[in-house]
Amino acid sequence: MERRGSMLDNGKINTRQLTILVVLFCLGSTILIVPSSLTSIAKQDGWIAAIVGIMIGMLMIIIYVKLANRYPEQSLVQFSEWIVGKWAGKLIGLLYFGYFFILAALVLRNVGDFITTIVMPETPIQAVHLLFLVIIIMGVTLGIEVCARTAEIFFPWILFLIVSLVIFLLPQMKWERIQPVWEVGSNAIVHGSLSVLGIPYMELVVFLMIYPAVSQQKMAGKAFMKGAMFAGIIIVLITVLCILVLGWDFTSRHAYPSYTLAKKIHFGEFLQRIEVLMAVIWMLTIFFKLALCFYVSVLSLAQVLRLSTYRPLIMPLALNLIVLSLVVYPNLIYFKTFVSEIWVFYALTFGFVLPALLLMISSFQKRKGEL
User: Fold this and answer.
1) Secondary structure (DSSP) of 148-194
2) Coil, strand, or helix at residue 274?
3) What is the Rg, in whole angstroms, of the alpha carbon atoms belonging to the chain?
4) pLDDT score of 161 more than 80
């Protein structure tokens, strides 16, 4: 079998752009929905659960980096065929395509739910999905390099908005809301950590499809880790803010606590409606998460089918994505349960079990070859 891979996209990204894409991907759905899942299980210790989940997530990333370093010119789909053989590898590739595509549908539905629940309640969700997906199609058609450069432009503004949010909320913090620390016990904290582990850390396996596009392969692993750690710090910070300002009970009951958090900001009559800051942060970050999820979905299927380019698949898959996003879950209450109880185990299969299995088989093959 030919070991040299092909990305089907000639675009290249540098390690700085990889770090930025990882940060934006992690923040995508997470900053809006995960604080609620964390506090519903771990209560005021939700921030500790977030730290535990991030630490475990970083161990997952070590597996991804080790796999990627063994096959630097190949994507996840391509080196799966190399490790377990053509047909078993194609099966794994198809399974990953399904995972990436369902993830893209969930993210698109998150966008629709937020817009139709909070921003424009009278707008049909189908219209929101269609308009948002048009922009995603443009980004995916242009390729990973254009998406990465766009992320580089928006990243400083996203950081500025997050810092502004923290500064504006300082007067509203009440430290007694985070006490007593560790009251819920270790079991609840570990259970709560699964929320942040499932979204977004085990989803970071999508970057194994993008890894071959990184121009400085030797530094890519460090850039990957740096992005995941930096995003983790922001996730913990947002969770702490939700607990200190809103209290764990309100945070756990509300679907979008960080958006409500921003509503608390007001300085007299001249500085109000600052929640638009959180809306802008979230819309920008979730755009890049959805663009990456849809891009790797299209790319993975094209590589399984051995196509010369992924672009003919964009429109058919986009139309299917709109339909799937409407039926993937019935309502927000179901989604909250789905995230905390079901999704984490589904993501565990693709974010840990299969990569760990591939790494073990690859290591065994290498040792066998050296004997």
Assistant:
1) HHHHHHHHHHHHHHHHHHHHHHGGG--GGGG-STT-S-HHHHHHHHH
2) coil
3) 20
4) yes
